[in-house]
Write a structure and sequence with these properties.
about 400 residues, 24 helices, elongated
């Protein structure tokens, strides 16, 4: 049974060429086809609802495990061979669900899915590959250790079947399913128990191949590898490709390279424009909020604006529980920059500055020594001011205190 034109189109836009930007249209197409009894549509739609481990994050599909489970069960009842195999792989092919499938056996469902794979459908090739990769063939073929006269023969049987995944995954990968490369990477780098030996040399170009095929997520992963190798110019190229293809987070990565001047001449203004592009796509992106906050605080690439700095840094801190910007938030509160002066709040931020920072020590020293929002503790304050070392404001502040003959710190 061939895939419907609706499913073929949806697979093109969701998996094989995700750069089209037609993911949401494809999702709606699958919903209509599923409602009209298309089991393969129900199966693919279920995967779309299972999160980034099963579908590209850039599509922005909702996550709904309960609905995904219902759709998988529905796909089995609707006679989708792919649905049967995906339900089996997902642990959803319970005996009661299996009884509702219009197949005489799991082998019959597998044979039908394999025919789709042989006809060239990449998604089917990936599903068939998974049946071998994850050992689902044991249940499909109704075999186990007791089916063989010796452990050696059982192991030979396992090796023969597991190894079949490699060819199917390559077919699926070349056909457009980038997830197939993820499983190939695991197959090559880890092997499979004592049955399949690792072959890490075969994995080294997978992300590059995926990048060249045009998959935004592989372009991003490959760019990260290039950065580790300090090949920043190439990394910038692939992060840009990934960003233009809609991969979440890559406009931020492009901005980081421009801000640092890696692989390109340093350009804070352009970096800011890329951070803003990332926030236009995802207003909650932690890194882009932090870096824009820093840019506005320092006036790098933009006109200095403490209120905007405090807004972006506060969002990252409170909404994303990210403390990267706590030093700038502390300064805003301590000096009253972009927000009302609030020493108590400043101290809360300063308590999270857990790295060497002389100005942070100066602010802590002032708060305790002067009793700003806390009970006065000159001794503790002086200790922080002394810790600030050569920080000019700390040296000036220390002039206001002296030690008595009895070793007590007092105000001059």
């Amino acid at each position: 049974m061939a895939l419907s034109s609706e499913v073929k189109q949806a697979l093109q836009d969701i998996y094989y060429n995700e750069r089209t930007g037609r993911g949401k249209e494809a999702f709606a197409l699958l919903e209509r086809a599923s409602a009209n009894g298309d089991g393969d549509a129900s199966c693919v739609l279920a995967r779309c609802l299972c999160g980034y481990q099963y579908v590209w994050r850039g599509h922005g599909f909702p996550e709904d495990d309960d609905r995904a489970t219902q759709l998988l069960h529905k796909s089995v009842e609707q006679g989708s061979a792919l649905g049967v195999l995906v339900a089996l792989r997902s642990g959803e092919l319970t005996p009661s669900v299996q009884k509702k499938m219009p197949f005489e056996s799991l082998q019959q469902a597998f044979d039908q899915a394999e025919e789709l794979a042989k006809d060239g459908d990449a998604f089917s090739q990936y599903v068939v590959g998974n049946s071998y990769f994850w050992w689902d063939f044991l249940r499909i073929q109704n075999k186990g250790r007791d089916s063989f006269p010796s452990q050696a023969e059982f192991k030979a049987y396992l090796m023969e079947n597991i190894s079949k995944c490699e060819d199917w995954f390559w077919k699926a990968f070349r056909g457009g399913v980038y997830f197939a490369a993820n499983n190939l990477n695991q197959y090559y780098t880890k092997g499979d128990e004592d049955i399949i030996a690792p072959q890490p040399e075969k994995a080294k170009d997978l992300w590059k191949i995926g990048a060249e095929y045009g998959h935004p997520i592989h372009q991003s992963i490959y760019a990260d590898e290039l950065k580790k190798a300090e090949q920043y110019e190439e990394a910038l190229h692939w992060h840009t490709q990934a960003a233009e293809g809609g991969n979440p987070g890559d406009w931020y990565e492009v901005g980081e390279l421009y801000f640092a001047g890696k692989g390109v001449e340093k350009d804070a203004a352009r970096a800011v424009s890329f951070y803003e592009k990332e926030l236009a796509r995802d207003p909650g992106h932690t890194g882009a909020n932090n870096m824009l906050g820093k840019a506005y605080f320092l006036g790098e690439g933009v006109q200095q604006d403490y209120a905007k700095a405090f807004h972006h840094l506060s969002f990252a801190y409170y909404e994303r529980q990210n403390k990267w910007g706590v030093f700038y938030l502390a300064k805003c509160c301590f000096y009253g920059l972009g927000t009302p002066q609030d020493y108590g709040r400043a101290l809360q931020f300063l308590k999270e500055v857990d790295w060497a920072n002389r100005e942070a020590d100066y602010m802590r020293g002032c708060i305790y020594a002067r009793g700003l929002g806390v009970p006065e503790d000159i001794k503790k304050g002086v200790e922080y001011l002394q810790k600030a070392g050569n920080f000019d404001k700390a040296k000036e502040e220390l002039l206001h205190y002296k030690k008595t003959l009895f070793g007590k710190w007092i105000r001059r």
